[in-house]
Amino acid sequence: MNPLPYLNPALGILLALMTVFFIFRIILTWYPQLELAKLPWSLVALPTEPFLAPTRKLIPPLGGVDITPVLWVGICTLLREILLGQQGLLTMAATLH
Fold first, then answer.
1. Which of 4, 12, 17, 55 is within CB 3.0–4.6 Å of 94 for a Cys-Cys bond?
2. Range of 36's domain?
């Protein structure tokens, strides 16, 4: 059984959802007084913080501005295009079967 017909939509939804979460994190950086540990902000912070915390160690805030969510929006978008785009790796593999 070929798992690609199930993997492509699931991975597409996951990457799109993570992109939206990172965009919300970009917006939340404009409001540093918000407590990300409290609802509803924790719904955005919990899935994104495991990616952002290690990245902040590599790329510290520039002029007090945290750019790591912007970086992760780019990474998620790039991955989605490379894997699931019109000529993406998984898309092409699915057409071979």
1. 4
2. 4-92
Return per-residue pLDDT of the chain as tens, 97 residues.
677 677 888 999 999 999 999 999 999 988 888 898 899 999 999 999 999 999 999 999 888 888 999 999 999 999 999 999 888 888 888 777 6
- Please give the model's pTM, rounded to 2 decimal places: 0.86
Number of folded domains that form the chain: 1
For residue 27, being part of any structural domain is answered with yes
In a domain, 33, yes or no: yes
- CA–CA gap between residue 17 and residue 33 (Å, rounded): 25
